[in-house]
Amino acid sequence: MTTATKPAPGPTRARGDVRGAHRLFVVRELGIALALILLITVTTISNPRFLNAQGRKDLMLGATILVVLAVGQAIVVITRNVDLSVGSVLGLSAFATGKLFLAMPDAPIVLALLAGVGLGLLCGIVNGALIAVARVPALVVTLGTLYVFRGIDYSWAAGQQINAADMPRGFKNMGTQTLLGVPVLALFAVVVLLVAGFYLRNYRSGRELYAIGSDPAAARLSGIPVGKRVFAAMAVSGGLAGLAGVLYAARFGTLDAAAGTGIELNVVAAVVVGGVAIFGGSGSVYGAALGAVLLSTIGAALPVLRIDPFWQQAVVGALILAAIGLDRALTARIAHRLRGRRARGA
Amino acid sequence: MLKRLGTWDVLVIVVLVAVIIGSSILVEGFASSRFWGFLLLDVIPIALIALPMTLIVITGEIDLSVASVLGLSSAVMGQLWLHGLPLPLILPLVVLLGAVLGAVNGLFITGFGLPSLAVTIGTLALYRGLAYVVLGDKAVADFPFSWTGNMIEALPGTTVPWVALVVLVLAVVFAVVLHATPIGRGLYAIGNNDQAAAFSGISVARTKFWLFVLTGTVAALAGFFWTMRYASARADNGAGLELSVVAAVLLGGVSIFGGRGTLVGVMAGVLLLITLRNALQLADVPADTLTVVTGTLLIISVVGPNAASMLRARIRRRRPATA
Predict the structure, then answer these.
(1) Are B119 and A315 within 8 A, CB to CB?
(2) Domain count of chain B?
(3) Is B323 domain-assigned?
(4) Looking at the whole model, is its pTM more than 0.80?
(5) Domains of chain A
(6) Which one of A154, A309, B146, B190 has the largest count of C-beta atoms within 10 Å of its C-beta?
(7) What is the ipTM of this complex?
(8) Which residues constitute the domain of residue B263?
(9) What are phi and psi of B243, to 5 degrees?
């Protein structure tokens, strides 16, 4: 083995060919969708109740929070950064929502949403400022704020637990109600996904995120305000983690400071499984969302398939390895095909 | 070796000494030798894993799976013990397991050319999951006292655990290899520019592969120590420890981009992190605050040097204008 096996950094990878790259995304997303359909089919055959009305609702609710987080994480990872603090931000925002309702039992739901998103945005701005202004890697900064935000959460909660009885009825209803068979909470995830997908595809600043992830230096040279974009991506990720915290509070009702501990691992896993390259520049929020749905469905399917739930984490790990391996193989194949075409054209 | 110390390493050591002196005066019980015996027991697993982790980060890679290797080793120990294997046989088997787990990481990273961050996040989940598959949520605790007691035994006449001395010897070996041999210079070269390193004849992939094997092996050793120290083999042993190790290594002045850092700095970083945590604990500061302190230290350790060098550059730019 020589160094040739290491992916060359920068835009020399096959990502230059838009059609090829586009096909790669479609292949990836189709693959995840097929895996998801296969998983649901096998599980439903094993136990038809898996997909009855209640089962469908549980699946969608189970995926909601992970999808919201995965969309934010995908935006960050596309810029070749990572946000490990999302679990702590979720915990902080969920607890803040509970505290808000304790202080103002009649507070409107919109206020809770605004407060949660605002708090998350603030956390994201701290991350973004440290990364963009001090030019420090996101991995280290968000590893630090993972501790800091969680520590603040714990000292604020001081062992206190907030129960469903402390939440107003309207807010709890939001966690259980459905609209045309779709849980209201899941609609939040759908809206977030569509808005983010539309933005990344149709706005110049959205597409610039891909350019930054492909080659930050080249992006800077071509006049893209890299620091500003990365800052915004971190802020959005924080805001979405804040939103996820409010949704978490609505869904579970019972809250302590440990909410969302360790979920950052699942979020990064969802994004990677969903075909977003960990070194930036490629992938889509739709893939990331599909990855999140796949992971949460595996969690729901294992007990139905009578597989020891202890296997879940191992399966998630194996899936991450398979996904990045597949991504590498597909990229190498496209690169090979492109080289062949160029040789013929010359 | 001493001339390799940069300003950051010296700063960490100075802060460490200041924390020790300050705590000795302000915190009751801190200056006791008993407290230091316990503190060193806490230092051992993190210091142990930080040794190979330093080398990995210097080459520009990272291994987030170490705590899961520790947990899986502990779970396998428990299961083997339940099956009646004697500990003298379990120890080499667990070390071998760690080497294999590290080799799997190394194979994915150097063989298939995958980013170490993604691979070891994957094996972080995979190995921890396998630990639960092996032992479930059981705890195996009936290890003989001749082993568990011996593992925390102090050196005669002191409160210093003998294992701390083993770690110290290992640290010296690692420091000599890193700072005084061609192998060590090669690691810095890889971290600075792996293509240039390859052109100058260093086998980049093979070096990195063996580094991951080394990390797995040491993490398994730490798992053995952990299990014996707490006399409890559990699948969740050491959960989250990877963050502490990475925090200590970065605090010790190793650049996350590779190519920079010293083992003296890292050992000072490990000691600073654990000393500060234990001193605050002794002073009845709640555990939540310790979490904030760990995170803040980590952020300062990366933002600090960057901000300082940016400031220095700004001053230097201004000086010719005033002259």
Answers:
(1) no
(2) 1
(3) no
(4) yes
(5) 49-328 (1.10.3470)
(6) B190
(7) 0.84
(8) 2-282+289-305
(9) -70, -40
